[in-house]
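Colleagues,

Please find the record for the two-part complex below.
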Amino acid sequence: MSTYDRSMALTGQPPKEINLNQKIASIVGMLGLAILLLATFNVSFPNKAFWLTLSLVSISGGTIWFSWEQYKGKYPGIKNDGVWFKSLTNLGFWGWIAGLAITTFYVILYFFPEYLGLVNGGDNKGVIGLFDPLSKALSGNPASQWFVYGALYTVAILAFGIKFMWKYRHNRYERIRTMSVMFFQTSFAFLIPEFMARLNGSSVLQGGSLPFLDLKNIWPLNYYNFESYRIKGFLSSGDIGFAMLIFAILSVFVITPFLTYKFGKRWYCSWVCGCGGLAETIGDPFRQLSDKSVKAWKIERWVIHSVVVFVTLMTTAVIYSYLGNDTSKYWLTKTTFLLGVAALLTLVFAWVMIFKRDQLQKDAKYGAIGYFVIIISLIAIHFFSGEGHVFLFKSGALRKNYSFLIGSIFSGVIGTGFYPIFGNRAWCRFGCPMAAMMGFQQRLFSKFRITTNGGQCISCGNCSTYCEMGIDVRAYAQKGENIVRSSCVGCGICSAVCPRGVLKLENGPLQGRIDSNQVLLGNDVDLMELVNSK
Amino acid sequence: MENIVIIGNGIAGVSAARHIRKLSDKRIIIVSAETDYFFSRTALMYVYMGHMKFEHTQPYENWFWEKNRIELVNAFVNKVDTENKALTLDGSRTLHYDKLILATGSKPNKFGWPGQDLHGVQGLYSKQDLDLLEVNAPNKEVCKRAVIVGGGLIGIELAEMLRTRDIPVTFLVRESSFWNGVLPEGESQMINEHILEHHIDLRLATNLKEIVSDENGKVKSVIIAETGEELPCDMVGLTAGVTPNMDFLKDSGIELGRGIKVNRHLETNIPDVYAIGDCAEQHEAIGNRRPIEAVWYTGRMMGETVAQTICGNRIEYKPGHWFNSAKFLDIEYQTYGWVFSERGMKDYEAHFHWRHSSEKLCITVAYNKETEQFLGINTFGIRMRHEMFDRWLTQEKDVNYVMQHLADANFDPEFYKHHESAILSKYNSDRGTSIKPKKKSFKRIFQLT
């Protein structure tokens, strides 16, 4: 009993159609993609710099023009008309096709870069070859598949970021936040590392060479940051290298906890992070596809916390493997390090159990106890295992498996490839260990919350539907309870789409942060007291 | 174990059921002929607009009801036999109750217009109405023009819905300005402008004379009373308010007026029969409220209250300070306390009005001109903190205090432009005061010491 769009139109807002200019804009964008595709199939372009520029300009120009046509005549306000009628965004035919296409791209990118034209120790061919001029201009080196990916990633965040800002032009929080992710992607993730590569071998670094480093990419998201070759790279590169190492360590233990306390994890997830940046821009049309069921929430908690345990173990093992045993050479030895890790974990665990026990639900408590026991016992096993093996496994094997399963399959192939299937934050929600750690803190020790406005909720469900993290926002709002959830990335869309002005993201005092009234504001005071005093 | 039967699975009935379950172990049965599960009525518009699917409007997952031992019966209640404490369902089955809660909601008003029952003529209230709208107005090819009769909240929502499918809409409003029985003039005027901006053919001070049928008993056009103009159309939306849904209670012995008559304990004249939500009519209005309040929030509050009474703690329905909200196309509206339109204004009531010079933002503050007490506020395009106004109304703050502390009450998203100083400078010049705005203080907002 409805008029779902069954046409194969990729875009537009059924039953409205896209206009002529939008059709032309689509063709322009497609042409840009076609150049990349032709290059992939080894059509050789005479002037690579020209064709690459043409391609990137057409892709972003087409996207921006299309968006302009979509929003130009409209009044500022919520633009979700027809979202659930379009097959691209309602898990329909085109949604699956898009999912399949992006997934295929990721599989090739991660596992078969030679099909993209990667040649080790020679001139690149194919689409990677097409990017050589740009790469050489920035870093002086030929392009790699990661350079191509980074460039396209940046183009996507910029072009779709502009679209997003038009879509939410009435909402300054969304506009400023989007400018922030566009800035961090372009500078920190894309340009600065390329420029830094130019310094390698120079006197500034005392002849050393820095590992490729996106400064805002913090462990454990950047799970390989403390590996032996990188530490060597940092330490060989003079004061700058040393400063970067210190910054990387401070980011984990000081900067992240401090900012998360002040602002919630949104300071990172929806203002800085590249994965978040992509999800919030090109991924925005798919946010409504996240699963809001309680069952999905249960799965989420198990999966994401398992990843945290995995990454912690893996990193500990990797660092352990290259540390020495001789205290006279360096104070940090294998044993000191392990004891340090154990002590730190115990400290956090004890703090949570002593001060925050009441705020945890039962299963979270069980989970914490379980994982704690595992970590301690694994460390104990170390003392009974011989050289070469760390814990139960070889550290190298652990690292390889993590990189394959989590780094490639989860964050890339599933996380982004499945945007049109699981929504745009599947990785952030189910997989990202950084998000989990900040989330843990956000839940227990942060000023951030989404305030529910008294009794104004009408249970309409827009907030839950458009929550990319699959939080059933309405379940809290209709009870008059503030939303304090570890997974919330603070994108602010629940507040934007609320037709009654019920939700507000804010950093406020810790006291009364989780405010639950069984009887909502509006009813008589005696009744409220009666029910709440229970 | 006591059998509690609730007729109606809207917000009132479901709130009652949930709170009875919280307080007791009684058997709870909800009977509804509309849908299997509770959904948010106010969200139906978003389904037609493609913002949500129907299942998204259901606040609880389907397992919720069984887990909380709330039995759901999909049936139509034909008759209530209060002597034998029994209901007749679907013309045959019988269901016994020990306590009965009537939460049957409303139905759209029809004022006896010729042609009001033709095909293509409908109201917008129930899930069935939504399904019907997909038949009557699936797109602009089938529905070349729609005419909406009645300028209230549902009317403007229906207009917004149809516009998302590019269907031309003519909007007949009896009043000389949109909703000016409720809104003060400045606000009503701003909404008029906004309606026109959205390319809705707004006809103010215009009444429907008749709806004309084609040869198949389907609507062909409407005729306007004032001018006699005939407007061809394929769909007519009747949105001239709602009226309690209680036809099946005619011979039940339950006292009926315009709604089901209840006392302050939400009890009808028959023992063990209660009425809550849209369908209930208070014998005497509570404060400035109307005897029948067809509002989401009051339905919820009555549900919370009646649950207490049924579970042995007999209490009066005492709604706190009035509040409400709505959205007119792109403009959000919130109200706290009482701000009456020129038509309903009290003798002691005076208004301060501010409107932004270019954006569609405005507020109206009502105060007592003798005592300076703050009475209420209407805001358009600016979100306000419910808790603050509720507290200020309880504390009977004077209007100057409220104006000075407006920043505490602002609930707009972060980084939004603030308008307090613009508002205050107009206030000062209107009233000859020299108040300076105070900065927002979490200490005051959360009453931290």
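Chain A touches chain B through 67 residues (CB under 8 Å).

Comments are welcome before we finalize the supplementary table.
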